[in-house]
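User: I've been going back and forth on whether these two constructs are worth ordering. Before I decide, could you fold them both?

Assistant: Sure. I'll take them in the order you sent them. The first construct and its structure tokens:
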Amino acid sequence: MRNKILKGSLALGLAVAMIIPCFTTAYSSNAKTLGELKAELAAYKKKVNDNAASQNKTKSEINAAKNTISKAESEIEVNQQRIEAAKKQIEELNVEIAETQEEIKNLVRSYEIMSGDNNYLEYIFGASSISDFIIRYSISEQLADYNDNLITSYEDKIDENERLKKELADREIALNNQIAEKEKAIASLNNQLSEYVEDAQDLKQQVKDIENMVKNYVDRGCKDNDLLTSCVNLMSDTGFVRPLKKGVRTSNFGYRTHPVTGEKNKFHTGIDIGGNAEGTNVYSIANGKVGMISQPAPGKKACGGKIVYVYHNINGQLYTSTYMHLLSINVKVGQAVTNETVIGTVGGGSRTQSWESCSTGPHLHLSLAKGWYGSTYVSYSTWVANLVDPGLKQYTNIPGYGKYFYSRTW
């Protein structure tokens, strides 16, 4: 327990600005030294190149599948035309067969050839001479052969057309199945491509984050074999104090129903402290250095509004304290702070509505996480995983929900 506020500030050897432009990437560094961080950067750049190659390969596969579908659809269209032509030809041949049969009957009648063997023989043997007999017999045979050959020819054509119709119909079924398979493949490839595109955006942001980290460490004189933690000089401390001189806890750390959206089981990353008007001074909860500052772009709104992140070293344990919904920010990135430094003022009310999107009234949101968010890691998810309840006794000892405090110490 701390009985008094540690007063005064210790001089720092160097105050270096560290700017991390994005805090929601999936990147979390395991690097201990600058050299290891550079190796991670090279690995992520390779992932970006591999991702681009995968995108190009997937796009080629999608185009190939689309070309296959286009060819199949064209073939189906031609086949349907051929089927219709075959149907029409069959109808015409059936008409020709009927007409030919009637023509043959008329010819036979003209030579008095009737159905049945007796009439046929009567016609042949009714010849007046040998020459007439030969002529009659020859005509009868020719008519019979002509009739048989003509009918057989037509029937063969009909059979061929029926075979063609079946073959084309079967081919159409096969082509439609091929189209369905390719459309399914295209849908799967498009999903895969979307994942590649999303991954690419994330990977590019991760590369940008690591490049910024490497640059910042290099700028402050860090060498490849130096520990990253040794490259950030800040004064250590032995504990925390409260960020406000008075206040009341209005929301707890952990899962809750969101007060603005109404979403249930929404994780609250810190505690809310109300009971102060906008413009009330907000203090750093321990000695340290400003690690990051986040502000909405001009004309834009953001949940949390203006935010300050401060790095601490408490008895050898690294922490990042976060102060959200600020009306004003009084510090700069890289600035050394003590537990008496005013880092900003309370916001969240009407005076911050032009840039604040998720506050119900004047209050301070205080978060506390192990590690240095934006330095020892840059992943939002890693920050969330390292969060602790800042109101616990071993930290700022903020009284429970609805209870007031009137001192920064206890």
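The second construct, handled the same way:
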Amino acid sequence: MLRLAAGAAGTTGVMGGLLVPAHASSRVRAWLDRSVVQPGEQLTLRYVEELTQARSIRVKDSNGLGWELHSKTRTSKVWKATASATGSGTVTVITTRADGKVFRDEVPYEVTSTTPDKTVPSGGPLIGMSAPSDVWDQRVAEVGAGLGARRIFADLAAGPNSQIRAIEEAHAAGMMPVVSYKVGGDLAGAIAGAYNGVAEQAAAKLESYGRPTAVTFWHEPCGDMTGAQFAAGSRQVLPAFQRGELKVGPILNGWLLDNQVPEFDTFLPDDLMGSWDYVGIDTYEGGTVTAPGARKPAERILALSAYVKARGYDLPLGVGEYNGFSAETITAAGEALLSTPNVWFGCLWNANDVRDWTLSGDRLAAFRATVNDPRAASVS
């Protein structure tokens, strides 16, 4: 993907896999749904503004593409153009206000004959686990050999090397890190771009290993923020990690797929769906041991697959955390991971939190069976 570092006003930067003006003004903003396309494919340019004065708007293209106005409202417009010859180009939206102030939004794009890689990086699902670092070795010993991924929770507010030792240990053990970055609770700072620099440093470090790594921003965001806030933060933090063997995507609240799909939608706007490398959820059995909930993790894995297809995408799927009260629930979730097409990773949460999800007895045996299933993949 073409990527430019943010600079002075009038230059451009990367936002959620899209290329947008570096000033990222909330008053005027233009972006492309996809910045990398093939010849003959359609480019879609979106523009929003909050200007009160009269203004004129012009669209120019460095390659001479004809941009046709597709739709408009008082504060937004959409233009479309068909990509032609391969190479780089720039579409510029020039907004001239009545008082003479000019906003220039330069949005680069690339027309390439190479198909973007959105496939599962390995030949089947990586079955992994999450557990606190101080008991990680014990939990691995209990499960036994064969784990393919390790869920890791890091914090950009703690610096670019947050949880780097756990990430290196995962690589050394032949597991793919599934890394969730938060920002010390500073959502407003993330939306304002305060963590973009440290994200670049963290991404450079992860890329240096040359190993497959899944990255997400603020897992399970529902309840902490709105969908719009999550999208705004993701557009700032995640683009830095789209490099080399690193893949980015959301890990959302799986229970929203039960009966709150419209809410789930708000965390998956079209511009991000088009730029992400995978879509994931966390999913647990609800209720209690004696009265478990009706909806199970396996159902939500299938629902996620159906949802992504219904949106018109063929993206790899991930499960950052899952668990259940019974061996039956864990076995069913494992079967869903192993048999659902395009699942990239699925990590079981094997620890205490608000309830004790630590595996033992028949629940541990059920997870071992999933890990050792011949359909499960390894990083290599």
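Notes on the second construct follow. Residues 126-372 form a domain with the TIM Barrel fold (CATH 3.20.20.80). The two ends are 25 Å apart (CA to CA).
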